[in-house]
Amino acid sequence: MSYKILIIADHLQGALNESTARTIACAQQIAPDAIDVLVLADDGAAAIAAEAARIDGVATVYHADDAAHAHPTAAVLAPRIAAAVERGGYSHVLGPNTTFGKDLMPRVAALLGAPMVTDIMAVHTPHEFDRPIYAGNAVNTVAAPADRVLVASVRCASYPAAAGGNEAAIEPLELDVEVPSHTRFVGLEQQTSDRPDLQTAPKVVSGGRGVGSEENFRIIYNFADKIGAAVGASRAAVDAGYVPNDMQVGQTGKIISPTLYICFGISGAIQHLAGIKDAGTIVAINKDEDAPIFEIADIGLVGDLFDIIPELERAVG
């Protein structure tokens, strides 16, 4: 049986997000006959498509340029994706399990009347996958019908980004589809930072309730800047008002897979551990020697973060 996969490109401010390359890495495990990418954007769609075309494994990148895509909403994009899937005869439609994909892919599945698998972390067969359950403490193997289009989201933390160097074909795509008008873009509020993106950074430094206050969190920021790391936080730190909620790492925050994860003053609640289980090396610093974080840490240090961080800063120069 032949398989043909369509990847929905995740992009922001005219640039392709790494989550797209990670989703393509998952698609490669299915061993399809072709992997295509669909870019839905405004006038910058062609430039984003050129980025996608360089990712290994991609056969063709289609781009649909439309002013309605300038501030995309799931209600606007989903009908057009469904039309592209039906026109192209795809067997699978994959998107990243990011905020973008979580909002969009279920709508696509509903419009296609298709089954959906969320948060794929491993591929067994083209219709059998592993996904995490119980905050990542167990893995569930699920099977989808083989005779229907399958819509799925990919757990990006479980896959490295597919390599570059490809020269896939790029083609414009006309999608003359009526979209609902009851949903419209009003405005966007988001945090901006010069630090690396939390979800894709190779190094992440996080702080928890043990940091003590919003003012004290400066020591976390300064150390992260010293080593070129992104900054995250536990839910306890977010709920306490130390940092904004877009910095939360964990089951109800961001799922990350950095090469190095250093956490200060984080006890290691199960919800937080679910967000860092795919990290390469986990370094934990906490005053409580019985903190659960030490059970999963590769390197653990019992001590006061306000004494240890200055020592670390001196050590890195």
UniProtKB/TrEMBL annotation:
Residue positions binding FAD: 209, 234-235, 248-252, 265-272, 286
Gene Ontology annotations of biological process type: fatty acid beta-oxidation using acyl-CoA dehydrogenase
Electron transfer flavoprotein alpha/beta-subunit N-terminal domain residues: 5-189
A single GO molecular function term of this UniProt record: electron transfer activity
Pfam families named among the record's database cross-references: ETF, ETF_alpha
Cofactor or coenzyme needed: FAD
Keyword field: Electron transport, FAD, Flavoprotein, Transport
CC cofactor note: Binds 1 FAD per dimer.
UniProt family annotation: Belongs to the ETF alpha-subunit/FixB family.
Chain's role: The electron transfer flavoprotein serves as a specific electron acceptor for other dehydrogenases. It transfers the electrons to the main respiratory chain via ETF-ubiquinone oxidoreductase (ETF dehydrogenase).
Protein name, entry field: Electron transfer flavoprotein subunit alpha
Organism annotation: Salinisphaera hydrothermalis (strain C41B8)
